[in-house]
Amino acid sequence: MSDTASPIRMLVVDDEPDLRELYVLTLLREGWQADEAGSVAQALECLRRREYEVAIVDMRLPDGEGTDILAWAQTQRRTERIIVATAYGSAASAVQALKMGAFDYLTKPVELSQLRQVVRSALGHRDSPAPLPTTAALQAMVGESAPMAAVKQTLRRCARGMAPVLIQGESGTGKELAARALHELSSRAAGPLVAVNCSAIPEHLLEAEFFGYRKGAFTGATSAHDGFFAAAAGGTLFLDEIGELPLSMQAKLLRAVQERKIRAIGETTEIPVDVRLVSATHRDLQRCVSDGSFRQDLYYRLNVIAVTMPPLRERLDDLPLLVEALLARIRHEHERPGLRLDAAALERLRDFGFAGNVRELENLLHRAAAMAASDLIGAADLEPDGDRPAPPSRPPQPPAPSAQEREAATASAAAQTPRVEAAASPTDDDREIERLAGCLDDIERDALRQALLDSGSDLEAAARKLGLLPRQLQWRLRRLRLDAR
User: At what angle do helices 426-454 and 459-466 cross, to 10 degrees?
Assistant: First the structure.
């Protein structure tokens, strides 16, 4: 900042004079200016007189609550970043404040190092350019339907603060893309985004991977290791599939979220961490809380701001844009610039259930591009093999016999078959082919019956046993007029 720039001014609101003085002295040592207030009324009077960059507000005040100041700031559309100070263990009040728009919270007794860290984070927007209304990740979230517009608006709003965000939605809806957009829109975009798949880490390694360990902490720890929290310092920690964490790890994560501190394995002291936490899951965490597989207190800590990604079936109006975006990538990968869908194929896509959402659509287009006879993908190219019109029945060919086997077969046939003077007529050939096809159908019918019997009439299990897709098995059952039961 240049010498001619206006000074950074802050407001400290607390009813304890000693604490106010301690906070003010700490801020002054950092080169910032600070005003004081001991009540809600005094704080509002200061705010009416001037604007501040940051306000540090105690939740318990003689004439009201810190949330009263938050509510006033919201109605007046104030730009101050408000940090609330809550008593130890007051998780509910901290969550309430964050939902009302507080930038962050501190737990009393406040450590001065943590106070400075949170204030610097709140001031981050001064030293970095304002985030653009769109980012690479936000642009990659293709769609202009009402559900997608609502999601993007929520991401833009909640990117301004430090409140934890929980992204929910079915598999394949783009939860990680939303987390990246949230990070890129925030003032922490210059910091790292560390994405962690909680379901991919063995349970006995979770603590070491999250919090790190020092050299010699356990057998095999030949060097120190920074965990995910340390790696995400100054940025965003994205915990994907948070619902897969075991209860033992949930308790340790809760302490890290509450205290903003972690202790590496083998260390005796905790160190403060500066990360914004974003979580995602395809599970219904409220139901997991009810059945006891997820901690209620951790759920409320993570679910301060909720973002729900809509399934593809609820935003079919976005299909043309999604198809074009995915095809652009496929054209580049396959070096087929003319690849496109015809109108019938695009209309056919609307009939798909898309249980796998956008990920399933992408796989479907990759497969259609590979199977299509030309660069124009038609509706038939989108269908699985089992649903396409069946080609003329052609019996499977047995392995080609060796020369010795052919010679032996010829000799045996000569010995057992009466000699005829004239070659068999075409009618005889047709009858022989029909007889062989019937024998093969009988063999296939027996194999299908046995597979269904062995699998207890489970079509998917029977298909796997036979090396078929379920739709291919259903087609064969219909062709042979067999009952799946």
Answer: 120
φ, ψ (nearest 5 deg) of residue 274: -120, 85
**For residue 387, what are its two tokens?**
């649903």
**68 neighbors 54 (Cβ within 8 angstroms):** no
Q: How far, rounded to the nearest angstrom, does the alpha carbon of residue 182 sit from its chain's CA centroid? A: 12
Give the DSSP letter string of 401-447: PPHHHHHHHHHHHHHHS---SSPPPHHHHHHHHHHHHHHHHHHHHHH
Average pLDDT by consecutive 10-residue portion of the chain (485 residues)?
65 91 88 91 93 92 91 89 80 79 85 86 62 68 91 89 91 94 91 94 93 89 91 94 94 90 91 93 94 93 92 93 91 86 90 90 90 87 58 46 51 46 50 68 80 80 76 76 70
Are 164 and 304 spatial neighbours (Cβ–Cβ below 8 Å)? yes
81: its two tokens: 């970043």
Contact 294, 168 (CB under 8 A): no
Helix (H, G, I), strand (E, B) or coil at 277: strand
Max distance between CA atoms of the chain, in angstroms, equals: 122
CA–CA distance, 275 with 165 (Å, rounded to integer): 12
Residue at token pair 């038939």: 380
Residues 240 and 260: their CA atoms lie apart, in Å, by 20
**pLDDT tens figures, 97-118:** 888 888 888 888 888 888 888 8
Residue tagged 């509706």 (tokens): 379
**What DSSP line would sit under 178-212, residue for residue?**
HHHHHHHHSTTTTS-EEEEEGGGS-GGGHHHHHH-
Can you tell me the distance from the alpha carbon of 84 to that of 101, in angstroms, rounded to the nearest whole number? 10
Within 13 Å and on the Cβ side, how many CA atoms surround 369? 22
Burial of 341 (0-12, 13-18, 19+ CB in 10 A): buried
DSSP of 205-259, one letter per residue? GHHHHHH-B-TTSSTT--S-B--HHHHTTTSEEEEETGGGS-HHHHHHHHHHHHH
C-alpha 112/C-alpha 312 separation (Å) is: 48
The DSSP annotation for 146-168 comes to: HHHHHHHHHHHHHTTS---EEEE
Residue pLDDT, tens place only, 335-368:
888 888 988 988 999 888 888 999 999 999 999 8
Locate 97 and state its tokens. 């404040």
- Tell me, what's the pLDDT at 89? 57
Beta strands in 241-368 (DSSP E): 261-262, 271-272, 276-281, 305-308, 340-341
Which amino acid makes up residue 436? L
Q: Please provide residue 105's backbone torsions phi and psi, each rounded to the nearest 5 degrees.
A: -140, 155
